[in-house]
């Protein structure tokens, strides 16, 4: 039996991930909302269910001659650690909505990031990394990769293109950034960074977790790989974890044949199914997240009890011009701010909130808020108010914006008194 026959008998999703239809319409021309609903989904051949079922299997039937398996096919359905029916459908959808050729999905966003870096970097290589990045990514480049693998790293202000250019060396193989930096919300110029990377013989990877499509598509701007924590906006319901790397098929195949096969980190079928389910409403939810974040940022920016607000959607924000030139339909769902006073005052403010939940993560249906004081080595790149007062990161959910603003105002009033 040929390899293609084996994959047919285990119900491998069609390449375009869409149900068979009598017409010949080019579904690649569909709008984002339609792709969000239909991309990667298929009718189940056994039951006729119109949603891809959860395939809770860790192994798939081998062909009569097991030695005929083609190990060069990273999507062959053999063992779920490497590929599974639900994973394939999710990969198809993510590649489509990000305008990439292929995608690889993992158990977490960090597993996806680690797999991309491990594939692209070798001992003695050099990487240029944004000096403001998610804590675990910062730690990966600050400690693990240099100490364990001999990767050389320079942290730079990714918004300063001259500084990025000056940091590139002859052995630079990677520039890594976040589209919107976590947590101070500075905005990277993706097209300019791609040109800088390619001119120096390097690749550009972009963590676009804060800016899922259709808000931004880094591959369209020249990035080589785009990475998402699927746990956040693409899932959207706070009930599943996952990560993804999307880009050219040649790079994705290397990631699958390397870290995915040899390190593990595979996403579970149930989580892949939950993320597929959540992604259906991504374009609709994203608009509400952005609208609520803008309403909250506007309120905070006018409140004298607030020491500092960072949100690229505010016209006066230093990141606004870069954001307006790249983003579509909004400026993201995260607002970072600092509250004056003493540490205990800020703790009291957080604990007085009634609608907003004190918790990490973002992109959930409910609004989450996290107050942190960062180590000096990491906070050195932040604006002075964040260094002095700590940083509160608010991830706007889907509630009424009026209710969210009222909750913030009430908690501020409990600690600091009325705004006037």
How would you characterize the overall build of this protein?
The protein has 3 domains: 1-104 and 231-280, 3-Layer(aba) Sandwich (Aspartate Aminotransferase, domain 2), CATH 3.40.640; 109-210, 3-Layer(aba) Sandwich (Aspartate Aminotransferase, domain 2), CATH 3.40.640.10; 282-416, Aspartate Aminotransferase, domain 1 (Alpha-Beta Complex). The protein has 15 helices and 12 strands. It has helices at 3-9, 32-38, 85-97, 109-120, 135-149, 161-167, 190-199, 249-263, 269-279, 282-301, 320-326, 343-352, 376-379, 384-389, 401-416, and strands at 102-106, 126-130, 152-156, 172-178, 203-207, 225-229, 243-247, 306-310, 334-339, 357-358, 368-372, 391-395. The strands form 2 sheets. The chain has a 7-stranded mixed beta sheet with strand order 1-7-6-5-4-2-3, with helices on both faces. The chain has a 5-stranded mixed beta sheet with strand order 8-9-12-11-10. Helix 5 (135-149) links the parallel strand 2 and strand 3 (152-156). Helix 3 runs parallel beside helix 9. The longest helix is centred in the C-terminal third of the chain and has 20 residues, at 282-301. The radius of gyration is 22 Å and the shape is globular. The chain starts with a helix and ends with a helix.
Q: How are the elements arranged and paired?
A:
Elements: H1 3-9, H2 32-38, H3 85-97, E1 102-106, H4 109-120, E2 126-130, H5 135-149, E3 152-156, H6 161-167, E4 172-178, H7 190-199, E5 203-207, E6 225-229, E7 243-247, H8 249-263, H9 269-279, H10 282-301, E8 306-310, H11 320-326, E9 334-339, H12 343-352, E10 357-358, E11 368-372, H13 376-379, H14 384-389, E12 391-395, H15 401-416
Parallel strand pairs: 2-3, 2-4, 4-5, 5-6, 10-11
Antiparallel strand pairs: 1-7, 6-7, 8-9, 9-12, 11-12
